[in-house]
Amino acid sequence: MATYYAVKIGKKTGVFNSWDETKALVAGYPNAKYKKFDSKAEAETYLSEDTTTGVMYQGLETFDAEELVIFVDGSFDAKRQQYGYAFVVVQNGKVLKQKFGGAANPKYFSSGQVAGETTAVLQALSWLSYHKYTHATIVYDYQGLEKWITGEWKAKQMVGLDYKSLFQSYADSGIKIHFQKIKSHSQNEFNDLADSLAKRGAVTMKVVK
């Protein structure tokens, strides 16, 4: 008897007839939602149900309403030699938390804005850990944030090496992160908010919670 797997929330959605393929799409994905059926018609019906439970964000896929989606960004002020960072936590289409600030660690100056990008992710992970969240999606526009973690890029400068090491410590504590890239200036209100807050952070040394 044929078996069908309907993936409603995962790296890719749809109906699949292989568990191995389905597992690759849902394993480790925050709040993955899928179900097994004996007929393709039943699987397709399942996918069409409860469409209102998903939340769409401009330029991104549909997320489960309860999923934490974290928009991160960084900035750099060359005159002040200071980088800014920001993260915005969104759940069910509403801002749950936002935080931004500035820092001026000399060993990261050569990396400019990237130092702010990595700091934003690490600050977000710290927040997740403090509030005992174990899953989230991080939305970024600088691809090194994901590629350093997956190993597609080899971290060579201190900013990347420190970022990868600290990220791994949070992963080892049980926090699972799904990354999703978004284009800069995609007109996503939450991404734009993170961008504006990071720029404010680059001209202030205090942390605004």
UniProtKB/TrEMBL annotation:
MF GO annotations:
metal ion binding; nucleic acid binding; RNA-DNA hybrid ribonuclease activity
A Pfam cross-reference name: Cauli_VI
An example Gene Ontology biological process:
DNA replication, removal of RNA primer
InterPro entries this protein is in?
Ribosomal_bL9/RNase_H1_N, RNase_H, RNase_H1_N, RNase_H1_N_sf, RNaseH-like_sf, RNaseH_domain, RNaseH_sf
- SUPFAM superfamilies, A to Z: L9 N-domain-like, Ribonuclease H-like
Out of the domains of life, which is the source?
A: Bacteria
All copies of domain RNase H type-1, residue ranges: 64-203
**Which reactions does this protein catalyse?**
Endonucleolytic cleavage to 5'-phosphomonoester
What are its E.C. numbers?
3.1.26.4
What keywords is this UniProt entry annotated with?
A: Endonuclease, Hydrolase, Magnesium, Metal-binding, Nuclease
Q: Where, if anywhere, are coiled coils annotated?
A: none
Name the top EC class.
Answer: hydrolase
Identify the cofactor(s).
Answer: Mg(2+)
Q: Which PROSITE patterns match?
A: RNASE_H_1
The protein's matches in PANTHER family, at most eight in alphabetical order, are given as: RIBONUCLEASE H1 (PTHR10642:SF26)
Q: Name the protein family.
A: Belongs to the RNase H family.
* Purpose: Endonuclease that specifically degrades the RNA of RNA-DNA hybrids.
Write down what this protein is called.
Ribonuclease H
